[in-house]
């Protein structure tokens, strides 16, 4: 699955976020770490455009991911 254009995020843990409305997939790249030096890219399946927008524009992207996405949508990656 091709990665959509990613939006750089100001967050302590998240590097950038993108959403593919056709497949309803939210892409999240976390900042580099020892385990993932290039940053870990994960996909959340079934995420509608409104939820993706709420995450991307939230004051705390990490908190929004935890509240609206992680416990609701299937993660791949």
Topology:
Elements (H helix, E strand, L loop, with lengths): L6 E2 L5 E7 L4 E6 L10 E5 L3 H9 L3 H10 L3 E3 L1
Antiparallel strand pairs: 1-2, 2-3, 3-4, 4-5
**Count of domains:** 1
Instruction: State the share of residues found in helices, binned by percent.
Output: 10-25%
Low-confidence stretches: none
Q: Work out the helix count.
A: 2
Compute the gyration radius: what is it?
Answer: 11 Å
List how many beta strands DSSP finds: 5
| Structural class label | alpha+beta
Tell me what the structure shows.
The chain is an alpha+beta fold and 77 residues long. It has one domain (7-76). Helices cover 25% and strands 30% of the residues. It contains two helices and five strands; from the N terminus they run ββββααβ. It has a five-stranded antiparallel sheet, with helices on one face. β2 (14-20) and β3 form a beta hairpin. α1 packs antiparallel against α2. The protein is globular.
Summarize the structure.
With 77 residues, this protein is an alpha+beta fold.
Question: What are the key terms here?
Answer:
five-stranded antiparallel sheet; alpha+beta; single chain; 77 residues; 2 helices; globular; 5 strands
């Amino acid at each position: 699955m091709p990665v959509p254009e990613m939006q750089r995020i100001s967050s302590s843990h998240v590097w950038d976020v993108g959403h593919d409305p056709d497949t309803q997939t939210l892409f999240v790249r976390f900042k580099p770490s020892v385990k993932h030096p290039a940053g870990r890219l994960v996909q959340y399946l079934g995420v509608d455009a409104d939820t993706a927008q709420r995450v991307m524009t939230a004051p705390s992207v990490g908190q929004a991911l935890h509240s609206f996405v992680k416990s609701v949508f299937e993660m791949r990656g």
